[in-house]
Amino acid sequence: MRVWLPEAVTTTAPEIDRLFYILLGITGAVFLLVQLTLIAFVVRYRGRPGRRAGYTHGNLTVEIVWTVIPALILVYLAVHSQHVWAKVRGAPPPPDLEVEITAEQFAWNIRYAGPDGALGSADDLLTINQLHLPVGQTVLIHLKSKDVIHSFFVPQFRVKQDAVPGLTTRLWIEATQAGQFEIACAELCGLGHYRMRGFLTLEPAEAFQQWLASQAPQAEPSEQSS
Amino acid sequence: MSSDASHGPAGFWRRHVFSTDHKTIGIQFLFTSLVMLLFGGLLAMLIRWQLGWPGQPLPFMEKLAPDGMPGGVMVPEYFNMLFTMHGSVMIFFAIIPLLVGVFGNYLIPLKIGAGDMAFPRLNMISFWLLPPAILIVCAGFFLEGGAAASGWTAYAPLSTTLGPGQVCWIVGVIVLGTSSILGAVNYVTTVINLRAPGMSFFRLPLAIWALFITAIIVLLATPVLASVLILLLFDSTAGTSFFLPAGLIIDGVLQPNSGGQPLLWQHLFWFYSHPAVYIMILPAMGIASEILPVFSRKPLFGYHSMVYAIMAIAGLGFMVWAHHMFASGMNPALGTSFMVSTMVIAVPSAIKTFNWLGTLWRGSIRLTTPMLHALAFVSMFVIGGLTGIFAASTPVDLYLHDTYFIVGHLHYVLFGGSLFGIFAGITFWFPKMFGRMLSEPLGKLHFALTFVFFNAVMFPMFILGVAGMPRRIYDYTQYAHLAQVGGLNRMMSVAAFCLGLAQLLFIANFFWSLFRGRRAGDNPWRANTLEWATSSPPPHGNFAATPTVYHGPYEYSVPGREDDFLPQHIK
């Protein structure tokens, strides 16, 4: 395994990766151009006895050129970024599944709708630090926090979203492949920040439904009997 | 000497301690902030120890920090204190005082041909607020619960839940802000009113332009920091709810607050702290713009566009703050507007870079120690600037935000940019400040080692960030996606220790040269600006007679002149 971008497992992650590589290409080219020019000038114009420096205060034409070219490149990058941003952060597509995650020091409380299909009702299914999501479905995650600011970060999703007390923030994804991943907290939240880790399982829709059903409060019958 | 005798105060205390002479105050800032730079660097070494060898004991630290490193093994709370204090010490007590306090004080009157600052007593107070600020912030280490531990950004509500060390941090930074504001009033007034005859605004050296605009930024931004810190202090200690919403449950207890908003802290904090980034880079840009022409023996390329670029950066710097908040939950449309303003601010930075290259073009380059640091400044600032574009691009930032990519970016700006600028400035003006030359061989060795080890520590941070390693993480080994980063982290830690050791060369050179260095003479670099027209060090009152200025600051290699420089005060 190399130390580089982790695998991309949502529909939007590859687009963010593509933009990242475009940025890397453009900034890499500028980086090389500037550094090589700098080295070339230092070598070529190294002071020698008897040689005098040129005398110039500048040149308006080159000033305009090296103002306009970077400006055009940056306009292109801004437009391209906005295109991807609108997709990732704009109005989410109609969700197939909604999940509510409430962060606290130092755990992720995850809430699924129960048989009545509504979040926030008595039959909701609760898990701690165990997030299962179906592949190929649009999932809208509502993020809340009980105490301080946390940030929901799954590197393989290429997004993070802060969970802010007093607010509900949102994040949508559509997973493209199954697998086991981890949720990291990306906003300093106190002494246990580093171990505020959650576990994410992406699985086919049927497997997800089975798992969800298995989470139904099975304690109920035994409670009634006792 | 006559001016010295007529103006110089008598007595050790008035002369060396509570001095109103801008040069003495500049040197007081220099020693204080270099000590803090060393302290901040030592904190970084401890951070690198934990990141290189997580959980391994460092036996001697048990004596120094029995609570933070019992048995020499660091606890997570202590790690949080270390990076909080490293950031705070470096930004508030090292980089800002070095750039603004040292060079602002020392250079402004000398370079504009004035005898002193407009308000010498205000200037003295601005220095004497710094030591109490340092003591208050660092006192946290000795209090119950330890020092501040919510990062240098002190995001609410976390920062309101911590102990007395965090409160000390708030109070100390308010005191420091007061010091900055007093200094800035002085700089602005001095540059506007005390310029020597003939020193029009467009004959000011770039360093003075940069310090002047920086002072205006400080005047506009720092009061906002002071206000927001006072609100945080009330939330922490007086039960108010500026940043605290209803329903908070801290340590299992429902808090009585209501009506506050955590994002308000971020908006107000970054409204100061993004301009603060420019407070920490503009003076370094000014220093580089002074040094490159002197050692290229050539006029600065595009003087006017350099001045306008500084103004543009300063103005736009007030419109980009929320690019720190793309993942914060603020409206995505705001993200778009702050991305655009951030992309725009890259243009004047690019203009400055190309003009520095233009200055080198067809020069007659002398690779002295200050020149090497100035060239490194240009080279490293470019990396800091280009990686900023990744962070400006909203979707890419959603991934890179709060990862080591950002840590790498900020260190290329603040170490690669600001600190190489500071080293360039210190090595360039040391002869003027102390009348003796620094050792060139030692200086070059220090430069080479610093340059190599700096890159060996900081460049891999970009790769770690791309691999998804979050910042401010005490122990990354538990994350599966970070299973492979241990080796790189250990290499970086070794390089960091070497970087720290290399600074011993600078200290040795500094003190050896202070007493044994070759005598400098008035103008050892054959430079044009006014500080070189007086003795080294200059007397109290700076100039025997007020100089008259006839030229711009960068008249090097003027055709038809025998000398390859033409000082500003010579017709």
Brief sketch in words of this structure:
With 226 residues, chain A is an alpha+beta fold.
Query: For this structure, what is the CATH homologous superfamily of the largest domain in chain A?
Result: Cupredoxins -  blue copper proteins
The helix-strand sequence of chain A is HHEEEEEEEEEEHH
Q: What's the CATH superfamily of chain B, by name?
A: Cytochrome c oxidase-like, subunit I domain
Poorly predicted residue ranges of chain A: 219-226
For this structure, the CATH topology of chain B is Cytochrome C Oxidase, Chain A
Helix content of chain A: 25-40%
Strands across the major sheet of chain A, in which order? 3-2-1-5-8
> Which strand order does the major sheet of chain B show?
1-2
Shape of chain B: globular
Would you state the CATH class of the largest domain in chain A? Mainly Beta
Overall helicity of chain B: 55-70%
Oligomer: heterodimer
What is the tally of helical segments of chain B? 18
- Mean pLDDT value of chain A: 94
The main sheet of chain A comes to: 5 strands, mixed
Overall 3D form of chain A = elongated
Ends distance of chain B: 25 Å
Number of strands of chain B: 2
CATH topology annotation of the largest domain in chain A = Immunoglobulin-like
Main sheet summary of chain B: 2 strands, antiparallel
Tell me the total number of β-strands of chain A. Answer: 10
List the helices and strands and how they pair.
The complex is a heterodimer of chains A (226) and B (571).
Chain A: H1 13-44, H2 60-89, E1 97-104, E2 107-112, E3 125-128, E4 130-134, E5 138-145, E6 150-154, E7 159-163, E8 169-174, E9 179-185, E10 198-203, H3 205-214, H4 219-225
Parallel strand pairs in A: 1-5, 4-10
Antiparallel strand pairs in A: 1-2, 2-3, 5-8, 6-7, 6-9, 9-10
Helix pairs in contact in A: 1-2
Chain B: H1 2-7, H2 12-17, H3 22-52, H4 61-64, H5 76-112, H6 120-128, H7 130-139, H8 164-193, H9 206-237, E1 249-250, E2 253-254, H10 262-279, H11 282-296, H12 303-316, H13 332-360, H14 369-392, H15 394-400, H16 404-434, H17 440-466, H18 486-516
Antiparallel strand pairs in B: 1-2
